[in-house]
Design a protein that fits this description.
The chain is mainly α and 175 residues long. 53% of the residues lie in helices and 10% in strands. Strand 1 and strand 2 form a beta hairpin.
């Protein structure tokens, strides 16, 4: 060790050595006390939560849901679900009265929207690129790749034992 090193890092004196020894003794005593306390609690029927927070305390519902969403990788579907709840604010009141989101395909990144008339379906198809840009701005780039617009759906075709083969329904008998 050179003289410069001795000036920069002097050897600990008696008082400093005593402080280091006292700190080490306190840490060892604390560790022995914690171990003894845990052993005593285990004999009394298990560990109990005290006044201070620890890992066994219940978690707030919002924190638990956020943790579950993050662990499962559901950030994008959850965000799209939030968009479906805020649909009128995103597209406007007029469009929201006539068009509503139905489902989101996460693999294809396609949002399906149902409109109450063919006129509104055509209008929404024209607005689709603008809406995709607005949704991606809100959700993050690439969350929605395309909006699939469906017009109003007619009644479901019923097939059964009382139908004539090749029949198209009640319209075929009237004209």
């Amino acid at each position: 060790m050179s003289a410069d090193d001795a000036k920069k890092n002097p050897e600990p004196s008696g008082v400093d050595l005593a402080r280091v020894a006292l700190r080490a003794a306190k840490e060892a005593a604390r560790a022995r006390g914690d171990a003894a306390r845990q052993k005593k609690q285990a004999r009394r029927g298990g560990l109990r939560s005290g006044a201070r927070a620890d890992g066994r305390d219940p978690m707030a519902l919002g924190s638990a849901i956020n943790r579950l969403i993050t662990e499962r990788g559901w950030e994008t579907p959850a965000a799209v679900g939030g968009v479906m709840g805020r649909w009128p604010q995103i597209v406007g009141e007029d469009v929201a009265k006539h068009c509503e989101p139905e489902k989101y395909d996460e693999d294809e990144r396609v949002l399906t929207v149902r409109c109450d008339s063919t006129a509104w379906a055509t209008n929404l198809r024209l607005l689709a690129p603008t809406l995709v840009a607005r949704l991606n701005e809100d959700l993050g780039h690439g969350s929605v790749r395309m909006i699939k617009v469906n017009g109003p759906g007619g009644p479901a075709r019923r097939y059964g034992p009382l139908r004539a083969p090749g029949s198209t329904g009640p319209g075929d008998t009237y004209g």
